[in-house]
Design goal:
By secondary structure, the chain is mainly α. Helix content is 46%, strand content 10%. 14% of the residues are buried.
Length: 284
């Protein structure tokens, strides 16, 4: 059986059942508190999957792999420190993620693997482990021998990205060969080192560098002011139109009433004259 289980946790929007976020009530940062609650809820769900595999006697020949697709976002309570950068950057904080591998098939366990490994390596690794034969002209490399024995990684380089079509000067590329990494162009917006306690500083830096520069802020304020003025004029025009419509309606109503009253008076006079003629005839 192959089971791929993708959790929304931990990812924005930040939402967690209250019983999990309450476990971290001592943490002042609300985003960090909710993020940890989400991680705890995910951990419990994974535990249920493992318990089910064990109950059904499937754990003895199972390979469990837990990993992420990118680094954390400090602006949503994430923490990549001491690595530099964040999600969406080419720095290690945006590209290096933790992973966990469990299996009774491992020849060595309870250790941290420090070899170089890329996400694409899992495809040939798992295919070979399951007895299959992956294609030879792919980027991934079978890492099972190194992982199961804590040996040397067969991978010597990682190509992070080559983006030569991004607009607004955002072209960038990065590659690592051995212990050396080359970053060319714009590595991404969040390129500093961020600790959990740096939330306020990070927000200030974020606004200052990317969103709220003085000229940009002035333009935004002017744009907001003009929009507010336009909205106010629209509201006033709408009220005037509604008032004029009400007045016109009232005028039409009064005109109909006057016309109706005039007709009634005319009909009354005609009836009165007819009665007088009848009385005259009787007298004659």
């Amino acid at each position: 059986m192959f089971l791929y289980l993708a959790f929304q946790s931990v990812h924005s929007p930040l939402m967690a059942p209250e019983k999990y976020s309450k476990m971290y009530r001592h943490i002042k940062d609300s985003q960090r508190r909710i993020l940890l609650g989400m991680a705890t809820a995910m951990d419990e769900a994974i535990g249920q999957v493992i318990a089910s595999l064990e109950t059904n006697e499937m754990l003895n020949d199972t390979v469990l792999l837990f990993l992420s697709d990118n680094g954390g976002a400090p602006y949503f309570g994430g923490n990549n420190f001491p690595l530099r950068g964040a999600k969406t950057t080419l720095w290690e904080g945006g590209t290096r993620v933790p992973g966990l591998l469990y299996s009774p098939l491992l020849k060595k366990s309870n250790y941290t693997y420090n070899g170089m490994i890329h996400l694409v390596d899992w495809f040939p690794t798992l295919i070979n482990l399951a007895g299959g034969q992956p294609q030879t002209n792919i980027d991934g490399i079978d890492q099972w021998s190194a992982l199961s024995k804590n040996g040397n990684s067969p991978r010597k380089e990682i190509l992070y990205n080559i983006d030569n079509v991004k607009k607004n000067g955002g072209k960038a590329a990065a590659i690592r060969i051995g212990d050396y990494k080359l970053v060319v162009g714009d590595p991404g917006k969040y390129s500093d080192w961020y600790q959990v306690t740096d939330k306020i500083k990070f927000k200030e830096w974020w606004k200052k560098r990317f969103f709220l520069k003085k000229r940009h802020l002035k333009k935004l304020k002017e744009k907001a002011r003009k929009k507010k003025l336009r909205d106010r004029k629209r509201q006033q025009a709408k009220k005037r139109w509604q008032l004029n419509k009400k007045i016109e309606k009232e005028k039409r109503y009064r005109a109909r009433q006057r016309k109706k009253v005039g007709k009634e008076e005319e009909t009354g006079e005609t009836s009165k004259e007819g009665n007088e003629d009848t009385q005259s005839k009787k007298i004659c």
